[in-house]
Design brief:
This protein is of the alpha/beta class and 387 residues long. It is 47% helix and 8% strand. The protein has 14 helices and nine strands. The strands form three sheets. A four-stranded mixed beta sheet has the order 2-1-4-3. It has a three-stranded antiparallel beta sheet with strand order 5-6-7, covered by helices on one side. It has a two-stranded antiparallel ribbon with strand order 8-9.
C-alpha cells in the first residue's frame, strides 16, 4: 500500500498522546495517535476524544467510536442532525477569522471537566482504511497510494461517512482515486459504487447507478434486495432501497402491460365479433393469442402476475419479453392479392425499449440535499485553495 517502508506497528505515530485499538493483519494492536490532529480532522473524532458530556465510566475504559444506523454502516448519531450545520458553520468560522490564527486560538477549547479520553476503540473499522486516514491526518503523505483497489476505496468511503471527514481525501479523490469512474461497476460492485458516490457527492454517478441498481436487483419473497448472491442492505443510503423497489415495481408494471394488453385486446375484440388481425382473420387472432399465452406460461408470466410478485430483475424480465415467440398466419400470395400477417403481432421489442427509455425519478429530495452537502465539503476546499 505504501511507497515507503511501514514499521511493524504502523499505528504508532510521532507525538502520539492518545492510545487507540485497531484491527490490522487479522489481529488487534495498540497504537498511539496525536489527539490534536484527529480533533482538527473530524468533528466526530473531537467528540469522542473530548466527550461533550460527563463520562459515566472510568476514563481508562476504551471509548467505542460508533453508533449503528440504517443500512449497515455505522456513524455518530449526532452527525445526521448536524451535517448541514457543521458544513455551513465551518465555512462561516473561516470567513469570520480575518486575523491569522494564533497558537492560543488553535488549542482545543474544552469545558471544565471535559478531559481527554485515554483510549479510543477502532477495532471494528477496516484497518487498512483507518491507517490510510491516519497517515493523511498525521501528514505522512508518502504512505498514501496514488491508486486504491476497489475494496479499500469502499472502506475509506465508509470511514469518511462515519466520521464526517471527506475533506481529508480531497487531494487524491478526483485526481487519481476516481479517475476511472464508477459507472462501469458490475454485479456486487454496483451497490458499493453507489455508496461511494453517495459519500463523495458524485451526483451524476449516483443517479446513473441508482437506475442501474433498479434494473439489476432481484427482490425475494420477503422483500430483500439482492444483486446476484449479494445482499444489498449493507452500505446503502437511508431510505434508498425502498425508493428503488417502488421505481422497479412501476417499470415492471409497464413492461408486463405490453403482452397483457395485447392478450386482452384480442379477447375483447373476439367478444364483439371483431378482429385484431389486420386482414380480419379469426384464425390469425387465435394463433397470436394461443402462442403468446403459451410463451408467457413458459416464462411464468401467465396467468397475469402483479408487479410486486416478480422476483427476477428487470434486465432478466426484458430478456424474457424480447424473446417471446408469437406465431401469426403465414403470408399468402395469390394472383389477386397478398396477405402479410407480420404486423398482426405487436412489436413487443419496440414497446419494451420505449419503456426503458422513460425517465424514472428514484432519489428523493433528502438524497439530493445530501449529495450537494457532500460535494460542497470537497469543492469548497478547492475554491478556498485557489483564492
Amino acid at each position: 500500500m505504501a511507497s515507503s517502508s511501514i514499521p511493524d506497528n504502523p499505528f504508532i505515530f510521532e507525538s502520539g498522546d492518545l492510545q487507540i485499538i485497531a484491527t490490522y493483519g487479522g489481529k488487534q494492536i495498540i497504537g498511539s495517535v496525536c489527539s490534536s490532529a484527529l480533533v482538527f480532522a473530524s468533528s466526530i473524532w473531537k467528540k469522542f476524544i473530548y466527550p461533550p458530556f460527563e463520562q459515566l465510566c472510568d476514563s481508562s475504559t476504551p471509548t467505542k467510536s460508533k453508533a449503528t444506523v440504517e443500512g449497515g454502516q455505522e456513524r455518530s448519531q449526532e452527525q445526521s442532525k448536524t451535517e448541514v450545520h457543521n458544513a455551513a458553520g465551518a465555512a462561516e468560522e473561516e470567513r469570520s477569522n480575518d486575523n491569522p490564527r494564533t497558537e492560543e486560538s488553535l488549542q482545543v477549547k474544552n469545558k471544565p471537566g471535559n478531559t481527554m479520553v485515554r483510549q479510543l476503540d477502532f477495532s471494528d473499522d477496516d484497518g487498512d482504511a483507518l491507517l490510510l486516514l491516519l497517515h493523511i491526518v498525521h501528514l505522512q503523505f508518502q504512505y498514501v497510494p496514488p491508486k486504491l483497489e476497489f475494496p479499500l476505496l469502499l472502506h475509506v468511503a465508509v470511514l469518511c461517512d462515519m466520521y464526517d471527514c471527506v475533506q481529508l481525501v480531497q487531494p487524491w479523490l478526483f485526481t487519481t482515486w476516481l479517475v476511472d469512474g464508477l459507472d462501469t461497476a458490475i454485479g456486487t460492485e454496483t451497490g458499493h459504487a453507489f455508496f461511494i458516490a453517495w459519500v463523495f457527492g458524485l451526483e451524476s454517478t449516483f443517479y446513473v447507478l441508482a437506475r442501474k441498481l433498479m434494473e439489476e436487483i432481484e427482490v425475494d419473497e420477503s422483500g430483500e434486495c439482492h444483486v446476484g448472491a449479494s445482499d444489498l442492505k449493507e452500505y446503502m443510503p437511508p431510505g434508498i432501497l425502498e425508493r428503488i423497489k417502488l421505481a422497479r415495481n412501476s417499470v415492471i408494471g409497464l413492461l408486463l402491460e405490453i403482452p397483457y394488453t395485447q392478450v386482452e385486446q384480442i379477447m375483447s375484440l373476439q367478444r364483439s365479433a371483431s378482429h385484431s388481425c389486420r386482414h380480419k382473420k379469426g384464425r390469425c387472432d387465435m394463433l397470436v393469442y394461443g402462442s403468446l399465452t403459451i410463451a408467457l406460461v413458459l416464462v411464468d408470466l401467465w396467468p397475469e402476475r402483479a408487479p410486486g410478485s416478480i422476483t427476477i430483475s428487470i434486465k432478466e424480465l426484458v430478456k424474457q419479453l424480447e424473446t417471446l415467440r408469437v406465431e401469426v398466419v403465414e403470408t399468402t400470395v395469390s394472383r389477386h392479392c397478398q396477405e402479410n400477417h407480420n404486423d398482426c403481432n405487436n412489436n413487443i421489442g419496440a414497446e419494451v425499449a420505449a419503456v426503458l427509455q422513460e425517465e424514472i425519478q428514484i432519489a428523493g429530495p433528502d438524497h439530493f440535499e445530501h449529495l450537494i452537502i457532500q460535494r460542497l465539503k470537497l469543492t469548497e476546499l478547492v475554491l478556498n485553495r485557489d483564492i
